[in-house]
Write a structure and sequence with these properties.
Shape: elongated
Distance between the termini: 37 Å
Number of strands: 2
Order of helices and strands: HHHHEEHH
Radius of gyration: 22 Å
Largest sheet: 2 strands, antiparallel
């Protein structure tokens, strides 16, 4: 990204376009409409599911557990996440179609999304893991129970670290959107790659863990297959 004082950050493209492309700062190509549609669908499905579960647990069953509060918190954080994502149309533009000033503004929005991400993901995973623990543990503290405990604490520590990394990405923090200030920043790309890799491992582990729990249950094979199919819907 160009940051030299020799350029006007309000009129200079943030990067050179690829071969065959020209920067278009006045009428850039955008996918903001797709972002709005995706956010609307995800919010609708997620929030309706949370509301339905909350209604069943709070009104019909009259038994609200810790995981239910965690899921509601995750839903509220997801609303905030979507609101920030939709708050800047520049997030869906090519970098060469943005000025330096606009690109730095986008960095600020992306950083806020990174901070909110842990508040969305950890409570959601905590809900799944605690629900899984209630299903499989019974009165025993077996390998499944301890595996779930390890996953809960590892995820908590990981998302705390990720959130702290995004909050302290630059010192001073103002350097994030003003790179000419003295100070230093850590690599945002490295944080995103590490987060993606750990999330994949965590999600796969949470998906596979019920298989071992079902194996230990004393029930008919047919019923185990039905329950396995229900858990397999998590692949979606």
């Amino acid at each position: 990204m160009v940051t030299s004082a020799d350029y006007d950050p309000n009129t200079t493209p943030a990067m050179e376009p690829p071969n065959g492309q020209l920067p278009d700062l006045d009428n850039p190509e955008t996918m903001h409409g797709w972002l709005i549609a995706t956010a609307a669908i995800c919010l609708t499905v997620s929030l309706l599911s949370i509301l339905l579960r909350t209604f069943v647990k709070a009104v019909l069953m009259r038994k609200v557990e810790i995981e239910d509060y965690a899921l509601v918190f995750s839903g509220l954080a997801f609303i905030a996440f979507a609101g920030v994502a939709l708050g800047s149309t520049n997030l869906t533009h090519h970098l060469w179609d943005l000025t330096i000033a606009q690109a730095l503004h986008v960095l600020g929005f992306e950083n806020i999304l990174g901070i909110l991400y842990g508040f969305v993901m950890f409570p959601a995973k905590l809900c799944v893991l605690l629900q899984m623990q209630r299903i499989f543990r019974g009165s025993k503290r077996d390998s499944v129970f301890w595996s779930i405990q390890v996953l809960i604490w590892l995820n908590l520590l990981f998302y705390l670290a990720v959130t702290a990394a995004f909050i302290g990405v630059c010192s001073p923090r103002a350097k994030l959107t003003n790179p000419l200030l003295p100070g230093k920043c850590i690599s945002i790309n490295a944080s995103i790659l590490v987060t993606s890799a750990v999330n994949i491992v965590s999600d796969v582990t949470i998906l596979v863990l019920p298989v071992f729990g079902l194996y230990k249950l004393k029930m008919a094979v047919k019923r185990k297959l039905i329950i396995s199919a229900a858990f397999s819907s998590g692949v979606l």
